[in-house]
Amino acid sequence: MGNVQKEIQSGRAFKRTYFNHRDAGNIFLYSFIACYAAALIVTLIAMQVVTAQGGDTTTLSDSLALNIITSALTPLTFLGIFFLYIKSSKISLYAAKIKFNLNWKTVLILIGISILCIFGLQYIVGGFNIGLTALGYKLTDFSLPYSNAGWYILNLLLLAVLPAIAEELVFRGVIFNGLRRNVSDAAAIFLSATLFTLMHSSLEQFIYPFILGVILAWLVLRTGSVVSSIIVHMCNNALAITLKFIEVQTGFDFMPKQTWLFWVLAVVLMAVVFVVLFLIDKFYFKKKSNLDVEKVEKNSEGRVPNLTMIIGIIVSAIILIVTAVTNFTSAA
Asked: Tens of pLDDT along 61-83?
């Protein structure tokens, strides 16, 4: 099924088989608002429950039950917005490029890329956080317990499996594919990565989500399937959780203590990541003839970013700034 087919028939209704820049702007704004609204509602309910029981609401941030609910809430909200949007807009799931046509070599390369990203970029991200701390920024310390195998599995489900599926359907399935119809592939990659970064609303989650967002969009571009980005995203998060579990269980710290060694590793490993990705792109993806990478018909109608995307960017930027200011002042 190619670009020439714009609609598919489902019963008596016709469904659109592509996303555009308006869909990208809409789903970014709706997802952002829905996530914060859902979190606010859950928090208010929790405060009411604690108050009714005579408890202290200031300790809610330490509530294990609330943290578990919050961890599941964002990806489930993303999934809800995704399916509600495509249903109400009469868009086929085909538009999200959910294709299981990846051969075993490609899957192995995708897993390798996820491992490469974790080990190759964790030091530069750690260095960025060190810089924030030196400037007086209070890093957010949110995590579920890693005390046993049960908690490890729950972390994998809530922080690896669910977010990978939900976030990839929204950001690469809708936003990236939608932007590709109105701007160049490179612009769509970097703009979708920027929106992905803004969604995290945190300075310490500024560098890695952007780099990862670029890589994930590039993979969708090269494979023609959002399944590729789901695999990398899921393996990436799962590996990070596994390393954290090993650290908690054994006390082994993967970060070197020597300052000079830390920065040498940060720079060298980041360079290695991009060199390896360049080689994979040149000698594997660009030479794969059996991967039917769909050429998107460009549509110059409308402006990118459109109104809903502009509103979403402004709102998310304000939240990011407020959060940053709060973390700087709270550490003072």
From this structure: 777 888 899 899 999 999 999 99
